[in-house]
Every structure is written in C-alpha cells, then in structure tokens.
Amino acid sequence: FFFVQFCLLFFFYRTLCSASRLAKGGCCMFASFLPDKTHNVDETFCTDKFQKRFGLKSVSLRGEAASVDTTGAEALFKQERNVRKLLLPGVFRDLHKLEWLILENNNIHQMSSLTFSGLHSLVLLVLLNNSLIKLDDICREMPRLNWLDLEGNLLETIGNVSFHSCHMLTVLVLQRNRISHIHDQAFSVFDTILNISYNPILELKDDHFDKLHKLKSLSIEGIEIDNIQRRMFEPLKYLTHIYFKKFQYCGYAPHVRSCKPNTDGISSFEDLLANIVLRVFVWVVSATTCFGNIFVICMRSYIRSENKLHAMCIISLCCADGLMGVYLFMIGAYDLKFRGEYNRHAQAWMDSSQCQVIGSLAMLSTEVSVLLLTYLTLEKYICIVYPFQYLTPGWRRTVTILFGIWVFGFVIAFLPLVCKGLFRNFYGTNGVCFPLHAEQPETLWAHVYSIVIFLGLNLVAFLIIVLSYASMFYNIQKTGTQTTKYSNHIKKEVTIAKRFFSIVITDSLCWIPIFILKILSLLQVDIPGTICSWVVIFILPINSALNPILYTLTTRPFKETILQVWDNYRQRRPLLSRHPAHHPSLTWQEMWPLQENSNGLNQGALLETKPGREAKVLYFVLIAHYGRDYGELSGMVQVEQTLGYALKALSL
User: Fold this and answer.
1) Contact call for residues 314 and 296 (beta carbons, < 8 A)
2) Among 263-267, 305-309, 564-568, which is the least confidently predicted range?
3) Ramachandran angles phi, psi of 124, nearest 5°
4) Which Gene Ontology terms cover its molecular function (predicted)?
5) What is d(CA 223, CA 249) in angstroms, rounded to the nearest whole number?
6) From its phi and psi, is residue 434 left (phi > 0), alpha (psi between -120 and 50) or beta?
7) Is the pLDDT of residue 129 over 70?
8) In 169-260, where do the E strands start and end?
9) How far apart are the C-alpha atoms of 612 and 636, rounded to whole Å?
10) Structure pTM?
C-alpha cells in the first residue's frame, strides 16, 4: 500500500474550475466545490460529479484533501474535510480510462456493486478507513481490478460472493476490520498477497486457503488460531512469506521460506536456542551442575560418615539438582540436532514425548530441590532455636520424609502428562519445554496450575527458608553475646553471617526473578521471550549448581577431610618403597544430632585424661540426649548457654 502511495503523482491542471463552470457541469451540490469552503459534508456523492470527464486517469478523495487528476489538466479540487456516507450507482460511469481510485477517510457507509459501473480500466481501488459494513460482489463492474485495499472499515462477514468476480485480483487487504466469519469459498481467486490481520476471526477452517495455490504472501497477524495445523498451509505450495501472531505458529508452515515473527526470544527460525551466548552457556551450566552434584554424591558415598541421615539428605538433594543438569544437557543436545533448520522440526519437537519428559524432569528437579531445602532449613531451625525440646530425627522418620518429598515431586511434575485432557500441551509451549511463561496458556487449568506451583508452593517455601535463617542468626547472636568474649563473638558471627548470607542470597537470586515474572504474567504484562530464555538457562539452575558448593564443598568437615587425605598421602609416599602401611579409614566428623550414639558416649570422650575431661563428657552427654545442629554453623552456642565458660576451652 505504501508503494502505491509513493507512486501516486498529482499534476496541476492548466486551468481552475470556477463556481459557475461547476454549476454548468451539473454538480448537484454546488457549494461543495467552492475554493473557499473549508468544511463540506456531502451526504450523497451524486451521479453527475464526474459526468463527461472521460480523460481522468486517477481520482483521490481523502479526508484531508480531495483531488481529481487528469492528463488533460481539467480540474483540481481541494477541501479540508470531505465526508460522503453514500456512493450512488453510476457516479463514476463516464470514467472509462480511470486506473486508480482512492477514497480514504470519507466515512462511506454503503455502496453497491453498480457504484463502480463504467470503471472498466480500474486497476487500483483504495477504500481505506471508511465505514463499510458489507460487500456485494465488489468487482462486478471492475474486471481488471488488481489491487483492493479495504483496511480500517467495519466489515463483519466475508461471504462467498464478496469477491466472486475478482478474477484478476492479486492483492487484497482486509486488515483491521471486525471480521469474525469468513465463508469457506470466500478466497479462491488471489494470486499474490492476502492480508486479513488483526480481525476477531473466531475460526479458520482447514480448507480456507485450499484454492490459493499461487498465493505468495499471507498475513494473519493478531489472530489467535486455536485449531491451527499443518493441513491449513500445505496447499500453499508457492507461499514465500507468512506473518503470524506467535512464533510458535511458524512450525505449522515449515515449507515457507520467511516467517514472522522469526523468534520468540528463546528459539529462532533456524535454532532452538536463538542466542549464541545461550548456546554456549547451556553446556557450561549443565556441566557444572552435573559434575558438581556427581562429585558430592561420590564423596559422600566414599567417606564413612557418622551422620548417615544427614548424608542421605544431601545425596537426595544432589540427585534432584543433578536432574536439572540432565535437562540442560538434553536441551543443548537437541539444539545441536536442529541447528540451522529448527522451524522444520519445531512443532513436532514441542509435541514430542521427549520434550514432555525432559520438561517433567526439570519440574521434578525444581520442586524436589525446593522441598528438600525447606526440610533441611526447618531441621536446623528447630535444633538451634529450640535445642532442649528438639527430638532427634530417626532413620524411619527421615526416610519417610524423603520418600514423601520425592513422591510429591513426581505428582507435581507428571500430573500434566497424565491429565492431558485438562492440561493439553503443558510443557510444549516453547522450545525449552519449561512452562515458566506462555503468551497464551493452553487451558485455564494449566494457567492456574502454573500459578499455584510458582506463586503458591515455591513462594511459601522461599519465605520459610528466609525467615528461618533470619531467626537462626538472631538466636545465635543473642546467645553468643551472653557467653563469649567480644572479639571471639564478632569473629564467630561474621563467619555465620557469611554462610547464612550465601545460602539466602542464592535462593533469592533464583526465585525472586521467577516470582516477578509470574506476577507480571498474571497481570497480563507483555514479557519479551528473551527474558524467559535467560531465566530458564541461567537463573533457574543457580540453586542446582551452587547447592553442592554451599552444603558440602565449602563446609568445614569437607575441608578437613580433604586436608586429611592430603596429609595421609604425604606421609605414605616416603614409605611406599619400603613396606606398606596401614592407615585408618577416613571419617567425616559432622556436628549433627548423633542419632547413632544416643545410647552411649563417644569412646574418645570417656577415655579423655587431659584437663577439661569432665566438661567434654558433659558436652557429649548433652549432645547424646538433646541433639545438636551443624557445628560449622552454630558452634557451641546452645551448649555454652548451659555450660558457661567451662566449655570455652574446648576446641570442638
């Protein structure tokens, strides 16, 4: 359309029409063509307006200015405003050579097929921004019409006879009308361009475009196609350009060379991961997550720990976090597989069982990790804040809780796959198969389910973790000031504060952006797909990648174990050439409730002969009876509250 506007050339004529000449010409509304008239409202555009003007080549009647252009320079009319509600039949009957007719912004409500009688040479007809409600075989008197622009009218229905006689029509623009229904046989004659964008069309049937074999460009932007399928576009063999509302629709027309929008921020027309940075870091993050958690699992299994229940919880957490690494690894692998031709496989990929399964694994990893961190946090909180009312967790209770967490995680992750009738394609709303955000959720159930998980369960768990650590830090600070010297107290609190801060800040970095994203989605704020891709690849796996470091690799017991291994290696190396030496197996000493020693005292404590033996014995008695949290976090704060300065000399 812009091409046509730039090509329109308006020439000045050799003479101007006077009022008397116009009157002699038979104009039914003499006042409308007076040069000094600034506002003119023509309710009816009369049949003799263009009588005997055989040489006219183009006519332009716009809301801002109306002009008539001829090669013989017969007339020029300009007005500030032209409103014409009705074009009567025969108004252009003498314009046999007219090729371009532009009627923009004229508030035309009604016209018949006979309105354009006599326009046998007309090629271009523009009826932009009028008020037309219906069309009745508009090309009946214009056999050569090639370009028809009806943008910005009030059309509600396109019938099977609306364009019945438009045999040479190649360009049809119907965007920004009120079209809700299109007859099955309405489009059957167009060769080049069809634009029906931004109409409230309720349904596009499978065979709507079957007869448009030669169509090269199809624009259906702004239209939600709930029943979209490949069958709709397969007959369009020569189609080179197509324009959709959503990038996901491009997967239903894989044979089309150019599809817009060409990205949803996550994927592009060529690649599953559109951004080169994402394509690189998906491997970095997956490797860090997988190998970090595998290393911790192996270390926990190799080193004989006195606290097997705590080790079981950490191993369970690492297994959950490791699933996130597997998920990212699979996304990276399929990105390589589809490299350069993703659109050909996009829809099949998002509907595939592989996408559903790895999406379920990501959801399982996320939810189990959140629940396990909440459980471990509550264990710490109860042990530190209520040390003398704390009951040590037994083997059966710990196993039951862990089993329940995993079962609950499986239910959350795989329920959308079992109940497909309610959730439809829950995980297949984007190329990375994670339902963090979708422009249009598949169903109401899927939308509500996503909100309940991310803004319900996960938000509550996050608040529990943050508030519990804040309460623990407050209690440690309050108790420590009563039992230690000022300098030691400051050092201890700085150490504890650093660990608490690192745990809480990683949870915050992971979940606060997700909560904000879901809230904005709930408020129907337009969220760029690029943000979602960065959240899924970088932010969501933060906890999975850092949990091994926070809960194992940076703890004091782990560091001491590594030093012990290194010292043993240095001591053994000079003796290897002489004779083999026996060294005791490694023991990971963790400050945790001594479930296994609740019926007796530690042998080392009972045989202690150095000064302070009684204090140590009393210390272990209290520990065996009441239980104790991590040594690296709470030190001796709660015990010192009872023992006072008698225990300050202990180097535990």
Assistant:
1) yes
2) 305-309
3) -120, 130
4) G protein-coupled peptide receptor activity
5) 11
6) beta
7) yes
8) 171-173, 181-182, 193-195, 217-219, 241-243, 258-260
9) 15
10) 0.69
Q: Give the residue-averaged pLDDT of 351-356.
A: 92
Asked if the model's pLDDT at residue 86 lies above 70, the reply is: no
Contact 238/306 with Cβ under 8 angstroms? no
List all residues 6 or more positions away from 351 whose beta carbon is below 8 Å from its beta carbon: 425, 428
Least confident residue range of 42-56, 397-411, 431-445, 491-505: 42-56
CATH of domain 276-558: 1.20.1070.10
Q: What single letter denotes the amino acid at residue 199?
A: N
Three-state secondary structure call for residue 632: helix
> Looking at residue 528, what is its pLDDT?
74
Which candidate, 74, 20, 35, 73, places its Cα nearest to that of 51? 74
Provide CB contacts within 8 A for 416, sequence distance 6+.
360, 423, 426, 427, 446, 449
Asked if 156 and 178 touch (Cβ cutoff 8 Å), the reply is yes
How far apart CA 316 and CA 310 sit, in angstroms, is: 10
pLDDT of residue 377 exceeding 70, the answer is yes
Residues 6+ apart with CB under 8 A from 591: 557, 628, 629, 630, 631, 632, 634, 652
Tell the residue number behind the tokens 């509250």, with chain if given: 641
